[in-house]
Amino acid sequence: MAKKNYAFYPGCSSQKGSSASNFATSIGVMCEKLGIQLNEIPDWNCCGASIGYGEGGLLPRLAISARNLALTEQHLPGQDLVSGCPACWLSTRETAEKLHGSGSLMAETNEALKEVALNFKGTVKARHIVEVLIEDIGFAGMKAPVIKSLDGLKIAGYVGCQTNRPFGIAGESFENPQYLDKMIETVGAEAIGGYEQKVTCCGGALAFSEPDKSQKQIRDIVESAYDHGADMIVTPCQLCQANVEVYQSEINKKQGTKLAMPVVYYSQLMTVAYGGSAKDAGLDGQLIRAGKLEQLAGK
């Protein structure tokens, strides 16, 4: 079967040694099993999601993302630009849509891109890898490679806010999207129904400026998972994963709680279900070890 080819934008957090390098590991194994070929965009740059909404202005922010789009057109023509990071996806998709909708912005952006000998024509579609999985592979296609059912795992599917708003996954409810629960079920695990924290913000933007507010959000997300009997939380978002995992120990110190809920990516679940080892799934990169998932990986 011929592989489906996509221009891949890894994003900063997935680089070796970065906070989501284990996500990149599992994405690679998962995609190999699903016949997806991710072709890394040559010389890509940061999308600007973390700093692009500061005082630099609209044009510099658009030009940063447009450079990645233009590089895709130049080196990987005809391929959609796919990102695993919701923040990168939002930034890149917003750029593509704004430039498509404004001839003057397109002209100004391309004037800036002239400095690096690039020109954005507007032929690239910016997509999240979850969109690729759902729209191009389908739930039946995701289930087909399963050789190790994750039966017995009870999982809280935490979508978070960036994958859900403002764009979201086509056809899904903003209040109660079902796609992550369905993905959990394709690998044989149980998706918790009624998990009321599914689309709340993890407080990532407040982690440093207002940590008490951010940690209140995280405690609610984790305690709700405990209340529903979850073995772990699963998310499609690198920031949500890092925030909800890392700050549990800080909350324990400050508030005397004993939170220790594993927070993993959907791609790690799928990698294990497809026969991958704990290392293949990047489970050795967890701060809070997902013991039950590691046990299943070792069987």
Task: Provide the descriptors you would attach to this structure in a database record.
299 residues; alpha/beta; Glutathione S-transferase Yfyf (Class Pi), Chain A, domain 2; Rossmann fold; four-stranded parallel β-sheet; 11 helices; 44% helix; globular
Tell me what the structure shows:
The protein has 2 domains: 4-128, Glutathione S-transferase Yfyf (Class Pi), Chain A, domain 2, CATH 1.20.1050; 146-297, 3-Layer(aba) Sandwich (Rossmann fold). Helices cover 44% and strands 10% of the residues. The chain has 11 helices and 8 strands. It has helices spanning 21-34, 58-75, 86-101, 103-113, 129-143, 179-186, 211-227, 238-246, 248-255, 266-273, 291-297; strands at residues 4-9, 36-40, 81-83, 126-128, 154-157, 190-191, 232-235, 263-265. The strands form 2 sheets. The chain has a 4-stranded parallel β-sheet with strand order 2-1-3-4. Strands 6-5-7-8 form a 4-stranded parallel β-sheet, sandwiched between helices.
In short:
The chain is 44% helix and 10% strand.
State the CATH class of the largest domain.
Alpha Beta
Largest sheet: 4 strands, parallel
CATH architecture of the largest domain: 3-Layer(aba) Sandwich
CATH topology of the largest domain: Rossmann fold
Number of domain modules: 2
Taking the alpha carbons of the first and last residues, their distance comes to: 29 Å
Q: Which stretches are poorly predicted, pLDDT < 50 over at least 5 residues?
A: none
Tally of alpha and pi helices: 11
Structural class: alpha/beta
Task: Calculate Rg over CA atoms.
Answer: 19 Å
Proportion of beta-strand residues = 5-15%
